[in-house]
Amino acid sequence: MSAAPDATPVYSYLGPVGTFTWEALRQVPEAEGAAWRGVSNVGEALDDVMSGRSVAAMIAIENSVEGGVSATQDALATIPGLRIIGEYLVPVSFVLVGRPGTALADVRVIAAHPVAYAQCRRFLESQLPTHGHVPAASNVAAATSLLSSELAEAAIAPPGITDHHPLQLLAENIGDNPNAVTRFVLVSRTLGLPERTGADKTSIIVELPDDAPGRLLEMLEQFATRGVNMSLLESRPIGDALGRYRFVIDLDGHVHDERVADALLGLKRFSPAVMFLGSYPRADRQQIEVVSQYGDDVFTDARDWLRGILSGEPEA
């Protein structure tokens, strides 16, 4: 059941307060003054949206170091009716914290979100080569777990965590890549499309129709022959049989762009298993450069030309 029209809108995010997802949600103007609901995982966030508990959910979908977030990609592929309505970028850096009185030499086990843990391997292998790892639901949850449990002596957390919790800083800037960025998307059940801006992205999920030779090439040709660039192409197992994969794809452009719309039509003819996730403004607001032969007017002229042939009009 959806929330009452006059109720305060609710936005879900991977909590608690202070996570990178929380930072991403702070970039959404519509979320200012709304109620924010911290959840434990992507599945819970999307269930909030599907059930109507939340109008939208902020979830991580891609990292510049680790690539696509598989839990998010798999959830979007299996839950119909969701739309991405915006994307947001958050610079990512990490610190190592412990309980007061802890020294780096005392650390045997580290609590960390799996994605954060993967991004700090170089530091961990050089400074704590024999450590163990306890997975946590979020970066902030990893840090706060030190105050309620003795399973770990330290945690990987966001910078500034010691401003909110009585923890001791053990090391700063422990991430492998100082320029790491995580891409977040705001997901809703809204079917309306954001207006195209010229700096847009379209996200889809596609399954090949069968495993005949050349099928992947055929799929890619739907974009290449229409001048549509892919900014993301990742495969994920479908799960029903060994060797079966679906493809998560981001396209440069909006579905209202003629070249993108034509590519999606060709893709749908090629494979009936196409899921449209949305067209939305790029977070970096970088304008898409389109070769003149793939401009909207070229597609429009071609359709008018064919329409004239079919209707028996003489060619000019």
Structure description:
The protein is α/β, with parallel strands linked by helices. The chain has three domains: 9-92 and 180-192, Periplasmic binding protein-like II (D-Maltodextrin-Binding Protein, domain 2); 95-171, Periplasmic binding protein-like II (D-Maltodextrin-Binding Protein, domain 2, 3-Layer(aba) Sandwich); 193-304, Alpha-Beta Plaits (2-Layer Sandwich). The chain is 26% helix and 28% strand. The protein has helices spanning 20-25, 42-51, 70-78, 114-118, 121-127, 139-145, 215-224, 258-270, 296-310; strands at residues 10-14, 35-39, 56-63, 67-68, 83-91, 95-98, 109-112, 132-135, 154-157, 168-171, 181-188, 200-207, 230-237, 245-252, 274-281. Strands 1, 2, 3, 4, 5 and 11 form a six-stranded mixed sheet that branches. A five-stranded mixed sheet has the order 8-7-9-6-10. Strands 13-14-12-15 form a four-stranded antiparallel sheet, with helices on both faces. Helix 7 packs antiparallel against helix 8 (258-270). The chain is elongated. The termini are far apart. The model has no long low-confidence stretch (mean pLDDT 92). One of its GO terms (molecular function) is prephenate dehydratase activity. InterPro entries: ACT-like_dom_sf, ACT_dom, Chor_mutase/pphenate_deHydtase, Preph_deHydtase. Residues 204-281 form the ACT domain.
